[in-house]
Amino acid sequence: MAAAGDLQMEDVNVGRDVEEELEEEKKMREDGEGKDPFKNKKVHKIVSKWMLPEHARSRYLERANCLPPPVFIISVSLAELAVFIYYAVWKPQKQWITLDTGILESPFIYNPKKREEAWRFISYMLVHAGVQHILGNLIMQLALGIPLEMVHKGLRVGLVYLAGVIAGSLASSIFDPLKYLVGASGGVYALMGGYFMNVLVNFREMIPALGIFRLLIIIVIIALDMGFALYRRFFVPANGSPVSFAAHIAGGFAGMSIGYTVFSCFDKTLLKDPRFWISIAAYLACVLFAVLFNIFLSPAN
Predict the structure, then answer these.
(1) Residue with more model confidence, 36 or 288
(2) Furthest-apart CA pair in the chain: how many Å?
(3) How many other C-beta atoms can be found within 10 angstroms of the C-beta atom of residue 132?
(4) Which one is catalytic: 48, 248, 257, 279?
(5) CB atoms within 10 A of CB 149
(6) Which listed residue (106, 172, 173, 185) is catalytic?
(7) What's the mean pLDDT when you consider all of the chain?
(8) Could you say which of 49, 179, 210, 223 would form a disulfide bridge with 244 (CB–CB 3.0 to 4.6 Å)?
(9) Is 248 a catalytic site residue?
């Protein structure tokens, strides 16, 4: 009997030792995560509250890290900034204030007379009409794009961004066919459109008070940017060249369709979501129509 009692006591002690060791390992693991710059839980918690509905946050936090870092949005922003500095400093342009006619000769700008150079339908995003133009786009796409890429990674964010850029140039070629086009607003508005729809659909889960604040911020930013775009289009000085603003609207619609689908499929296989294929099919149908319009019906011909 005494031996049996000793065995039971030893089993209890061993169980306690194992539990204590497991707790210590868990604590050390959590401490290590806190010190790891690629897994800062405070940052990821803030990002999850702003980017995801409540039911998806725990899954995000389980695997959250900054590997890979938000390479796409940072690389695109640096490229746009480099092109702007090139034309503003190394080229004798008066681009610090407004769009200068000299920049219209850039091989990147969308020029309706050179539509056969297909790369211009994408590369126009690298050229901007002045300091206020590029600063507005950079601030918006970095402030929104970095947390979006932390959550959804670069492939999905890049898909939405470039879908907005292409939609912007094609829409401009249809609705404003004789006007030039510059700036990354199509891509920026695609990110904003996708995020806006997610906030709208998951409004109650994304903290109502902050949800209202987010919607107001987006609306104010869009109003200011659209106001500036309309000014460049309709109130440009007589010696300047008016620039189309259709890319803003088209980019927003691309974001509200493709962007919403992509960003709402967090932690799910995108290719298995029928909404994704429906939005892609609709997008490709619009692209095909725009291409045929440019070939056969465009006044720029």
Answers:
(1) 288
(2) 106
(3) 14
(4) 248
(5) 24
(6) 185
(7) 78
(8) 179
(9) yes
Q: Which two tokens stand for residue 276?
A: 């994704």
Q: Of 73 and 198, which is predicted with more confidence?
A: 73
As a whole number of Å, the CA-based R_g of the chain is 25
150, amino acid identity: M
Q: Which of 243 and 231 is assigned the larger pLDDT? A: 231
What angle is formed at CA 202 by the lines to CA 213 and CA 148, rounded to 5 degrees? 75
Under DSSP, the state recorded for 20 is H
Q: Report the C-alpha gap between 262 and 119 in whole angstroms.
A: 25
CB burial of 189-200 (b: ≥16 within 10 Å; e: otherwise) equals bbbbbbbbbbbe
Token pair of 242 as six digits: 């008016």
- Cα–Cα distance measured from residue 39 to residue 63, given in angstroms and rounded to the nearest whole number: 9
Active site includes 185? yes
Query: Under a CB-based contact definition with an 8 Å cutoff, are residues 249 and 181 in contact?
Result: no
Residue 23 buriedness (CB in 10 A; 0-12 / 13-18 / 19+): exposed
Average pLDDT over residues 239-251: 71
